[in-house]
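Task 17 of the worksheet. Students: predict the tertiary structure of the chain below and write it out as structure tokens. Keep your answer in the requested format; marks are given for formatting as well as content.
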Amino acid sequence: MFYYVLKYVLLGPLLRLLFRPRIEGLEHIPDDGPAIVAGNHLSFSDHFLMPAIIRRRITFLAKAEYFTGPGLKGRLTAAFFRSAGQIPVDRSGKEAGKAAIREGLGVLSKGELLGIYPEGTRSHDGRLYKGKVGVAAMALKAQVPVVPCAMVGTFEIQPPGQVVPRIKRVTIRFGEPLDFSRYAGMENEKAVLRAVTDEIMYAILGLSGQEYVDRYAAEVKAEQAKKFPRLLR
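Model answer:
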């Protein structure tokens, strides 16, 4: 219930008014049935802008840190994400990744939309990074289409570390659904998972026009944090 209050009464109309999003390809989101919406992740604002313009409810796999933050801000953030129906995901290792896949499959089994950022974390520099294969595992196991999505301009309005977003128009693009039925029964083959993930990332790249980096964003962030500890705070 609170999800729809946010979407249609409290947050959605405000976001549309402030950021006046250009929406392209919305017709590619299926009207019913399970599907994955896989997008780039440039800003904290992405969590709100995409759901605000999609007609259907969409459930995101959100990082667990959003649910465990300290102090009043942490409690408010956790309460918001829970009320909005988002699912906390532990990103600490392989077993955590398997748990995230189970949660995602549970959403899809109900015939719902699942939102996921294959990069696994926000881009710290506006570039598009290598995708993790969890999105491919879920698409193949659930046998559902993947709709690529590109957020354009959200890095400029709220880059990492900026609390209050700048008021500036953004663009949200959806591409044609990707069908991976040709890989049916091959969801446990690493090469197939990598190929499917790369195809999804290539589709996102075509929509976003970002520079692509064939490395995981978390690895690059960790390296830069060691060299420039104040830069990525």
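Marker's comment: The two ends are 35 Å apart (CA to CA). The longest helix spans residues 190-208.
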